[in-house]
Amino acid sequence: MAKTVDKIKVTMSLGSPIVINGGYMTLDALLAGIIFDQTGDIEKAHSQIPLANSHGLWHGSAAIVEKTDMGRTAFVANLRAMHDLDHELIAKNKYGKVHRAIGLTRRSDFGAVMNSYKSFSAPEITWYATGDAAKVEALLSAVEFIGKRRASGYGQVVGLRIEDGDLDGITGHFGEPLRPVPVELFSGDKTALKADTAWRPAYWHPTNRAICFAPEVV
Amino acid sequence: MNTFEFFNEHFGRHLVPIEGEPHEATHHALSTSHKLLKGTVSRLSSGWAIVRPGLSSVQLKLAATGLKYDTRTRIESFMEELDTWNGKEPRIFLMFDKAPVPISNVFLTVDRRLVRICSPAGVETFNADVPPPEDAGGIQKAIWKRKSFS
């Protein structure tokens, strides 16, 4: 039977600056996001990532980049009050109703908001992992942009390489963490940086946080 | 113990009953009104707090017992805490404002090299052992400036 799970090194070549905004952008997070985009199924996105998993920890490193330039970018977003909003998606007050209706007269109710982001340029972005190389390649090869503000042209992917790797996606050559690893699951260098951070998808959800040994944020 | 269990155990339980999921109780403590010492009620909408095992500190004079009321500025209190903290037990550094601090902005600080100041506007993250870089946030710069004059 063919071996399907192995140590791999994934490299993406970037054609435009990328916006990550202070996270780790682990390979499992990226793959989960792609699966969700393709299936719309949150359960599948969090359970069918083609990487090894031990005690709930996916064997995919944080993104490793060598930044060549850093910058800031800002976008103005307008709330369009006349568009239909699904009230099910909005937080309710204690009476079970949405907090207030969107006004159509006061500028503060529907005016523009500006969101700013830190961006950086890098020729390549690399991950180490233990997983099924063919399935990882199938998912990543469908991706044209990664990171935030993809629809605005940031994080363009112009090349993908998947090679044999020599790291498992969790600890580096000197025992340093390659991704957030909860303290009780980490067997590497215990002098590494410790942080209260998410260690499994959904990474945005505060309940998935724990005290972890972690690398520097990207 | 995760972030929200730590917050509830050492701060939240003095303000609200701890019911449901830990993050729900934390949200409740940070977003509802509490009785003040002067008799009126207010949300945690100004000042600061430091959550620590034992006795947590808060600037707003709440009626609740079990918390230490401290009139110093946030810079003075955060600076002293970082100077005296041995790094063994976690801390939560909070700055309050008109809007409640969302639970997504509440983080434990467990390492001097990654201090997190939590506020409604976001989280300022810095290494307490090195001078602030050019693009550092306001709290790190203010603490370092005060340190260099003391």
Question: How would you describe this structure to a colleague?
Answer:
The complex is a heterodimer of chains A (218) and B (150). Chain A folds into two domains: 6-68 and 122-175, Alpha-Beta Plaits (2-Layer Sandwich); 73-116, no CATH class. In chain A, 14% of the residues lie in helices and 30% in strands. Chain A is built from four helices and twelve strands. In chain A, the strands form four sheets. Chain A has a four-stranded antiparallel sheet, with helices on one face. A three-stranded antiparallel sheet of chain A has the order 2-7-6, with no helix packed on it. A three-stranded antiparallel sheet of chain A has the order 10-12-11, with no helix packed on it. The longest helix of chain A has 13 residues, at 27-39. The mean pLDDT of chain A is 89. Chains A and B meet through strand 11 and strand 12 of A and loops of B.
What is this structure, in a nutshell?
The complex is a heterodimer of chains A (218) and B (150). Chain A has 218 residues and is an alpha+beta fold.
Please give the domain count of chain A.
2
Question: For the record, what CATH class of the largest domain in chain A applies?
Answer: Alpha Beta
Order of helices and strands of chain B: HHEEEEEHEEEH
Oligomer state of the chains in this structure: heterodimer
Query: Per CATH, which architecture of the largest domain in chain A?
Result: 2-Layer Sandwich
- Helices of chain B, by number, come to 4
Q: Could you tell me the radius of gyration of chain B in angstroms?
A: 15 Å
- Report the biggest beta sheet of chain A as strand number plus sense, adding barrel if it closes: 4 strands, antiparallel
Instruction: Report helical residue fraction of chain A.
Output: 10-25%
The backbone outline of chain A, from C-alpha atoms, is globular
How much of the residues of chain A is beta strand, in percent?
25-35%
Q: What is the number of domains of chain B?
A: 1
Into which percent range does the helicity of residues of chain B fall? 25-40%
Name the strands of the widest sheet of chain B in spatial order: 5-4-3-6-7-8
Largest interchain contact: A-B, 13 and 18 residues
Mean pLDDT of chain A: 89
Question: Count of DSSP E strands of chain A?
Answer: 12
Q: How are helices and strands ordered from N to C of chain A?
A: EEHHEEEEHEEHEEEE
